[in-house]
Automatic annotation (TrEMBL):
<dbReference type="GO" id="GO:0005886">
    <property type="term" value="C:plasma membrane"/>
</dbReference>
<dbReference type="Pfam" id="PF00083">
    <property type="entry name" value="Sugar_tr"/>
</dbReference>
<dbReference type="InterPro" id="IPR036259">
    <property type="entry name" value="MFS_trans_sf"/>
</dbReference>
<dbReference type="GO" id="GO:0046323">
    <property type="term" value="P:D-glucose import"/>
</dbReference>
<keyword id="KW-0812">Transmembrane</keyword>
<feature type="domain" description="Major facilitator superfamily (MFS) profile">
    <location>
        <begin position="1"/>
        <end position="148"/>
    </location>
</feature>
<dbReference type="GO" id="GO:0055056">
    <property type="term" value="F:D-glucose transmembrane transporter activity"/>
</dbReference>
<dbReference type="InterPro" id="IPR020846">
    <property type="entry name" value="MFS_dom"/>
</dbReference>
<protein>
    <submittedName>
        <fullName>GTR5 protein</fullName>
    </submittedName>
</protein>
<dbReference type="InterPro" id="IPR045263">
    <property type="entry name" value="GLUT"/>
</dbReference>
<keyword id="KW-1133">Transmembrane helix</keyword>
<dbReference type="InterPro" id="IPR005828">
    <property type="entry name" value="MFS_sugar_transport-like"/>
</dbReference>
<keyword id="KW-0472">Membrane</keyword>
<dbReference type="GO" id="GO:0070837">
    <property type="term" value="P:dehydroascorbic acid transport"/>
</dbReference>
Length: 148
């Protein structure tokens, strides 16, 4: 969501920071799960409940956030909602360049055919990319990082 609603000049930064926070969350889980902190048998309920705090914050704040402007324009075709979301997220400035980019993306998406999973697997042009994704995902799952 953050990567999609951010202005184009900040989109790469917003998308790359999510990896940092995933890693930070895993590290914090490892640290707080130590026996000396919250890893003891009597503190396990508190450790497990700590996962609910970010979810609760998200549940409370999400209704106040607007929908993603690209989603409103490209999926729903809601031009007024799109403009309102842009103003709410980015302020009242001049955002015509970003709006033009989203409109170009919408026009490009109109001309592309959406493939089913079976068509994607059968398509020779995507075969090497699929091989790489399967190999990388498999090695990540089998390397033991989740156990660490």
């Amino acid at each position: 969501y953050v990567g999609e609603i951010s202005p184009k000049k900040l989109r790469g930064f917003a998308n790359s920071t999510s990896s940092f926070f995933w890693t930070f969350g895993k590290a914090m889980g490892q640290i707080t799960g130590q026996r000396e902190l919250l890893g003891g048998q009597s503190l396990w309920p508190m450790l497990m409940a700590s996962c609910g705090f970010p979810a609760l914050i998200q549940l409370v704040t999400l209704p106040f956030l607007p929908e993603s402007p690209p989603y409103l324009l490209m999926q729903k075709g809601d031009h007024e909602g799109f403009k309102k979301a842009i103003r709410q997220l980015w302020g009242e400035g001049h955002h015509q360049a970003e709006i033009d980019d989203i409109m170009k993306e919408k026009a490009t998406m109109k001309n592309t055919k959406i493939l089913s999973v079976l068509e994607l697997v059968k398509e020779p042009a995507f075969r090497w990319q699929l091989y790489m994704i399967v190999i990388l995902t498999g090695t990540i799952q089998l390397c033991g990082i989740n156990a660490v």
